[in-house]
């Protein structure tokens, strides 16, 4: 079983060498490594050349570089599709150019996949916080018991749909992607991996998994998509409409899961939005939410969502109270900023008190030392 590894890069010079080194420890003879650089303007190309000067990939690993020369619009969609166009092996595995694989765990997951041979095969990952230099579990880590206990077929499909959509945690059977004509959507938007994930899960005849942490996904680095706070987040509503339109009206479980997906994403987006993005965000939300049938929206299976702020805001938007929501979000943001400012002032005040106490201690120490020196001087005079 050969793998076509697809690495997508854009201005990741500080990180791409670690990515390539980790992949070199995972790639086997007969594998293919495709690097699609989306017009990097930093030293990404230099770091790649440096990697090859110092050894590169193992012998018999096919190297397929694609240098686009200019940055394409949107996110990873175009670069990912170009990688798929160049893939020649029977399995595809995506890697972000700023992430890195865990070789031992990847090898174990690969062996599991070799035995399983599902159309898609999910693995696990950790997030590496670049700012704090620490690891943490992803938001869907609590869903693994459900996935592991799910029965093959529709229960497992629903469980897989609930997992975070990222493509770099999965082995894909390439023939399935080709036969079903599954590709990333292309356009002036980000987060293309979400409809791709839904297309794959709905098309797959078999879904497998291996709970091994195969990579560390870098977060909190400059220029990262998930740091978005503006109108680019409205892409989620466009993606929701794409997902919703692809679900047969008779498939209630999939529709319910699509609503869960939408509310789940709104829950982390609402607290990040800049004021200038609120109008466009709420307008896009209104257009998407009105597509949901009342019978689905009020379904008992969604009861657990109804206590969340995201649900309450979404429900008011569906009721035509968009301006109330915009005003409430403005107020919520103002309160949150005031609380953050208050916390910073309290921390500054506390730090000032500590510094003043430290200065006082230093002064007292200096004064004591001065008094001791004066005493020694006087004593030496009398001893003569």
UniProtKB/TrEMBL annotation:
Stored InterPro entries: Glyco_trans_2-like (IPR001173), Glycosyltransf_2 (IPR050834), Nucleotide-diphossugar_trans (IPR029044)
Annotated keywords: Transferase
Location of region: Disordered: 133-153
Domain Glycosyltransferase 2-like span(s) in chain numbering: 4-176
An example molecular function term from Gene Ontology annotations: transferase activity
Positions with biased composition (Basic and acidic residues): 133-145
Protein's name according to its UniProt entry: Glycosyl transferase
Annotated source species: Sphingobium herbicidovorans (strain ATCC 700291 / DSM 11019 / CCUG 56400 / KCTC 2939 / LMG 18315 / NBRC 16415 / MH)
